[in-house]
UniProtKB/TrEMBL annotation:
Its EC number is 6.3.5.-. HAMAP family: GatC. This is Aspartyl/glutamyl-tRNA(Asn/Gln) amidotransferase subunit C. Allows the formation of correctly charged Asn-tRNA(Asn) or Gln-tRNA(Gln) through the transamidation of misacylated Asp-tRNA(Asn) or Glu-tRNA(Gln) in organisms which lack either or both of asparaginyl-tRNA or glutaminyl-tRNA synthetases. The reaction takes place in the presence of glutamine and ATP through an activated phospho-Asp-tRNA(Asn) or phospho-Glu-tRNA(Gln). Heterotrimer of A, B and C subunits. InterPro entries: Asp/Glu-ADT_sf_sub_c, GatC.
Length: 95
């Protein structure tokens, strides 16, 4: 597979970029060099390599979610500025 100047012009148009002729030539050469380098990966023997989605194992760093008893409602309401029917009462914000 090879990138042509037409391909570079098409991508530039999609990206709303104006490129000079020198820039088109440079990008064509650079993209072809990238493809040539990536094609070297096809030569690797990957028969004994298991497919992975991440190169290193992912581990959740958060603690386990363990259910514990919460504070009694009467102690919680001691910190509330106002309470009604076991709930914290706040000023209305909508009219």
């Amino acid at each position: 597979m090879s990138i042509t100047i037409k391909d570079v012009e098409h991508v530039a148009k999609l990206a709303r970029l104006e490129l000079s002729e020198q820039e088109k030539q440079t990008f064509t050469e650079q993209m072809n060099a990238i493809l040539k380098y990536a094609e070297q990966l096809n030569g690797l023997n990957t028969d004994d390599v298991e497919p992975t989605s991440h190169p290193v194992p992912l581990v959740n760093v958060m603690r386990a979610d363990i259910s514990k008893p919460s504070l009694p409602i009467d102690k919680v309401m001691l910190n509330a500025p106002d309470e009604e029917d076991g709930q914290i009462k706040v000023p209305a914000v909508l009219e």
